[in-house]
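Service request form, structural biology core

Requester: graduate student, group of Dr. S.
Request type: structure prediction, single chain
Budget code: on file
Notes: please return the result as structure tokens.

Sequence provided:
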Amino acid sequence: MKENILDVLIYLFENYMIEDADYQPDQESLARELAQAGFGDSNISRAFDWLENLSDLCDRGEASMAGGAATAVRHYSPLELERLDGNARGLLHSLVQGGVLTSHEREMIIDRLLALESDELESEHVKWVIMMVLSNRADNPHDYAWVEDLMFEGVRPVFH
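Core staff response, request fulfilled:
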């Protein structure tokens, strides 16, 4: 049995959330498929809740999470500092400064990372959540492609 909610989310993202996915099953069918793939009912339910919360955050828009201007300094809470290492915070900062993420999207990513309830968030986790948030953005698919390259090709962010 696969152990964590992020595994479920990655499975769903790779198989159903990428823009070219033709098959769009209902939640019940997805739950059955995920159980057959070895995911536990608890993690499946938590993954669906996680995605629903992400959808709600996206639907509410910029006003729901004040992120400040891109030039503002983001201070992290003690919990955020504990869960997000310097590399994760640095990556988020770079993406906001480079205009790839808005400050609102950064806040959504932080919210969704903390909702994973994982003691150790690795840089790969952060990159997956960034891609999941950006996949909900319709206005600039180029940024999504850029982060996908970052994820799979190990491209280092360079901004001009």
